[in-house]
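In line with agreed milestones, the collection of sequences with tokenised folds has grown. One record among many is set out beneath this paragraph:
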Amino acid sequence: MPIRSILEVELFHVWRIDFIGPFPPSFSNSYILETVDYVSKWEEAVALPTNDCRVVVNFLKKNIFTHFGTPRTIISDGGHGSKTSPDNHRKRKKKATGGNIQKSQLRDALYTRLCTNKTILTINGQFPGPTIYATKGEMVIVDVYNRANENITIHWHGVKMPRYPWSDGPEYVTQCPIRPGTKFSQKIVLSDEEGTLWWHAHSDWSRATVHGALIIYPKKKNDYPFPKPRAEVPIILGEWWNSGAKEVMNEFMASGGDPNVSDAFLINGQPGDLYSCSRSDTFRLTVDYGKTYLIRMVNAVMNNVMFFKIANHSFTVVGSDGSYTKPLKSNYIAISPGQTIDFLFESNQKPNHYYMASRVYAGAGNYDNTTTTAIIEYRGNYTPLTSPLLPNFPNFNDTNASANFMGQLRSLANKDHPVDVPLNLTTKLFFTLSINLSPCPNNSCAGPFNEHFSASVNNITFQLPRVDILQAYYRHIRGVYGNDFPDKPPLTFNYTADVIPKDLWRPENGTEVVVLDYNSTVELVFQGTNTVAGVDHPMHLHGYSFYVVGWGYGNFDKDKDPLNYNLVDPPLMETIAVPRNGWTTIRFKANNPGVWMMHCHFERHVSWGMGMAFIVRNGKSRDAKILPPPPDMPRC
């Protein structure tokens, strides 16, 4: 028998296309048309009323040719449908998108929102990007191809990467950027994470469009500590600027002022029909009466804590930041940028159309006072309202509504999901989080007093080096960073006073780190300040989850406040919002050697310098040391 040559298939060159159905009609649709890319397993699907060639052509033009280019080959069984149930379709989709190897191509794609056409950075032409499915403890290989004209790095938000900081992703902290025309294979090392996390770009403001969900299942399928849901639905909150995100960043950094607010908030990439020119750009979720659904929510918004509600429905929160929580009943969600929330909702209302909606919580500063919507559609024979019911939100500046939601979360703290809160502490840190002002080079900046906004931790504005800190640490390169980051602010004052003297507004620039011994037990108090203006700060620590043992308003009292710490079942998180002019205390065990960034997840604040890095030294044993770097590590 002659030997056939092996066909080398490129990304998005070969697609399989098939009809699934017919199903019982739902909103006049009886079929699902599904396409799957041969290499990446990326899937596009749409519900349709018919299964003829006309709808296939329209689907290919709109969903494939526009976003992925013209395929070389389209494979089909030639049929017009199959007797596949909706449940089987869900299983097929999960299998198609899951796996240990992911192909991720960074490239430009044309998208239209609010009647504005714009080329944006995407992964695989998708906005939001593809959802990655994995199993607890698994290793996922993600091959990132940079086909765009900009540098990029990808961060795996909430993944601890034990002993392997090389794939963590923050630009010039753990790696240099993936340059145009190059590739980097990122090894995503999962450990005890379980639930919803996410991934996003970690270069300038690219994460505005380069982001997606990362869903980590238990090792035993459906082994959840809550009733099995009818279906699971990722919901990603985002935002849209009619101008490019990079242009927004460059403009506000040059002006020294605040960035322009976005033109719309988004639910799964769609603004919703309350915005002009967006009636067809609305995400819709079809539900069956009396069923329970698991919503896996990610806040990918750039600069705002968000409120989320579904009209006439309440929720049961069951997880946050890749960890389970005790069930928490609530009729709204408050979620900070970087955070994830898993919650159940039961479709127990009269069959109709209901808005799910999200709007901003704004403690201070400029904000987008608009509401993004999606629609919950009950199956059944009924005449829906002309306009769906819209939920009522807390006030936009309701600090208590925002802080109290997170303050009610508790870990499961049972034998299957125990807690390990550090009790005997070896390291205590006190970090002030401040908005600052810096001198303007030309005395015409857009900040207060014609100066330039900046931000700091313990009065140090973080400066990114030109060689990444991890490489400098690992290879003993001198002059890249210093190890003199203070464990407390240089001056003690009334951090939350109504008026703070202007001479306390000036920060110092630096690339300083805190060095921790392996296995040290750390307590870190974040203290918000009212320099320039007090505001919330969603603080994110790479490489670790931490226990949130306490929080409050005003200045932290080191004698009284620890008496009220929760050391029994505090929530395990990796991003926590420090309330405006308040404080939050976290604890963690430094058992993951490497270089790990910590920063505010308001993008404008980290752009101004609200960040720093920890170096956790190697332990003595072989399995307590940083693993070697991969051979294709991007060069500086």
